Prior knowledge:
Elements: E1 2-9, H1 13-21, E2 28-32, E3 43-46, E4 49-52, H2 63-70, E5 78-82, E6 85-89, E7 92-95, H3 107-118, H4 129-154, H5 175-183, E8 193-197, H6 202-209, E9 217-219, E10 223-227, E11 232-235, E12 239-247, H7 251-257, E13 270-279, E14 289-291, E15 301-304, E16 315-323, H8 330-343, E17 352-360, H9 369-384, E18 387-389, H10 391-394, H11 401-415
Parallel strand pairs: 1-2, 1-12, 2-9, 6-14, 12-18
Antiparallel strand pairs: 3-4, 5-8, 6-7, 10-11, 11-12, 13-16, 13-17, 14-15, 15-16
Helix pairs in contact: 1-6, 1-11, 3-4
Bound molecules: flavin-adenine dinucleotide.
Amino acid sequence: MKHVEYLIVGAGVSGLSFANFVPRSANWLCLERQKEPGGYCRTVKQDGFVWDMSGHFFHFRHPRIEQYLVHRMNADEVATIRKSSSILYKGRRIEFPFQKNIHQLPLDEFLECLYDLYFRPHNMEVNTFLDMLYARLGQGIVEKFLRPYNEKLYACSLSSLDKEAMGRFFPHADIADIIRNMRFPDAASYNATFTYPRGGAIEYIRALLKDIDDVRIHYDESLESIDTSASIAYTSKQAIRYEHVVSSMPWNRLLEVCHVPHDSSLYTYNKVLVFNLGFDKKGQETDHWIYIPEPHFCFYRVGFYDNIFATERMSLYVEIGLKADVFVDVSVWLPRVLHDLQVAGITQDHQLLSYHWAVLDPAYVHINNHSQHDFWEKRAILEQQGVYSIGRYGGWTYCSIEDNIVEASQLAHRLSGLKSDVFVGEPVASQ
Length: 431
Ligand SMILES: Cc1cc2nc3c(=O)[nH]c(=O)nc-3n(C[C@H](O)[C@H](O)[C@H](O)COP(=O)(O)OP(=O)(O)OC[C@H]3O[C@@H](n4cnc5c(N)ncnc54)[C@H](O)[C@@H]3O)c2cc1C
């Protein structure tokens, strides 16, 4: 039977980052159930269009991570872009984030939001994400944008989410920020600029693969079961004895693979149906992406690849948030998406030349106190048995690609007994 020091599960950003940062002498093997690497950072090239599994843009907080990746890429092919995004609200455009740009609303709605912001309920008990929104921003802002938009995205009631469900990704603004922004607009946000390679998100994956011996990655081979007491993993092709498992597969599925008794109803999530659409000519849109809160449009966000590299034909991604158990019939969704794009004014007499679709399942996990408590308890137990769960879905969290790289590098250093960390940074995942 094969024996490895590290059995890595998943050749996405997290698994490949771990493989990059363990010492070169380490004996590791990576299982990837797909036929190719990348996970959610895969890219599709079709009929002259370059598409990701929905827009995957890179926001670096750690310059050393950016350097590490860009040194392994053709730097001329990576653009740094100042973000331009807006909200489609009742046929007009409001800059994002909504709460800092209420002065761009019609006067009566602006006054309503301002009044509700000032007289928002003080001292209310804040237990959920929805409570947090009302307590911080008042009814007008919440009901015009934050609630409908986030309910479309998460496909659940915001009362079922923890007040910190979005961690640092929620654009907080207090009353002073909001009023200051009316006179002196400030574009600060976690993604005010982003980088993006001409070849799509897969270029970052290629950078992580550059120094790795590809034969150590077993494609089309999935982890199916782990006997933690014997330290043996059973894959779709063989049994492997391991010292450590480092898994980036979704946490709820890892619990099943490891035969850990658990309440599966604690771990809820949505899925996102993504359409990538290539048209015959440019549209009028200049933003990189737009947010769409109104429920009569089926999508919550539309992004424009052609506005990143100023290409000549409109190239879109469209994201639709769905409950996890919904059956996805693309033949029903595609005409609806095309119709809604017309109604939104994004397409006019455009001809669709090419399309691709994907379902991200899971996409946004529903973070609440119960799931977090159970996660931390069971993760500690699995770690004692040599099984480590990392990544966005392994960590059952909301985080970015960069967070995945930081977390994987920290674990690689911890397990290999190295004192220093390549990327010493803040904690990686919201707990
Ligand atoms: C709609 C959407 C938009 C996003 N946009 C951005 C963005 O713009 N910028 C950003 O920084 N982040 C973005 N993210 C987050 C980003 O996608 C993730 O942080 C990142 O891709 C997670 O990488 P990972 O390696 O942890 O997981 P994954 O990419 O999910 O990789 C896990 C891998 O494990 C494999 N696997 C699963 N089960 C098994 C098994 N049993 N055996 C073997 N292999 C298995 C999978 O096939 C997969 O390749 C977005 C996420 C979503 C949902």
